[in-house]
Amino acid sequence: MNTNMEKIKSLLKKKDVKLTYQRIKILDYIKNRKKHPTFEMIYNDLVKEIPTISKTTIYNTLHVFIEKGLVTPVSIPGKDVRFDGNSSWHHHFICERCGRIIDLDIRCEYLEKGEVEGHRIKEFYGYFKGICRDCLEREKI
Ligand SMILES: [Zn+2]
Ligand SMILES: [Zn+2]
């Protein structure tokens, strides 16, 4: 096992999630391999490596991960739900050309404090929409 896998295992242990091969593979996929995948992407990629994996297993596993705060669902109107392996609060940039969802490293004092004008923040949805720098470069816009 490489160090990534060791990290995944210790994360699961820390959150009291029973270790199974499939759970380790699913969390590794979301955290290390694909950024913000949809349910279909997770299934289609993992079933190639683990032919016995079922959609139900993935569905149930994601449910556990979300409950334990290991994965955050990102819902964007008009798009399939994405699963985010970066479970700390952060802003996103959505590219209307290539459809990528990119993590942004924006400092936000409200998120750091968990409070805005005396209101306690429990969930956060923040994104910008536009054309990402790779698409801008490719299309020379
Ligand atoms: Zn793009
Ligand atoms: Zn993200």
What is the 3D form? globular
Spatial order of the strands in the main sheet?
A: 4-3-7
Question: Which structural class best describes the helix and strand composition?
Answer: alpha+beta
Q: What separation lies between the terminal Cα atoms?
A: 44 Å
The residue-averaged pLDDT reads: 93
**Element string (H = helix, E = strand):** HHHHEEEEHEEEH
Strands, total number: 7
Fraction in helix: 40-55%
The unreliable regions are none
Largest sheet: 3 strands, mixed
Using the CA coordinates, give the radius of gyration. 17 Å
List ligands, each type once. zinc ion
Tally of helical runs: 6
- How much of the sequence lies in strands comes to 15-25%
Plain-language structure description:
A hairpin with a 2-residue loop joins strand 5 (about 115) and strand 6. This protein starts with a helix and ends with a helix. It has helices at about 5-15, 20-35, 40-50, 55-65, 110-115, 135-140, and strands spanning about 70-75, 80-85, 90-95, 100-105, 115, 120, 125-130. The protein contains 6 helices and 7 strands. The strands form 3 sheets. A 3-stranded mixed beta sheet has the order 4-3-7, with no helix packed on it. The relative contact order is 0.12. Helix 1 crosses helix 2 (about 20-35) and helix 2 crosses helix 4. By secondary structure, it is of the alpha+beta class. One zinc ion binds near residues 36, 84 and 103. One zinc ion (ZN) binds near residues 98, 132, 134 and 135.
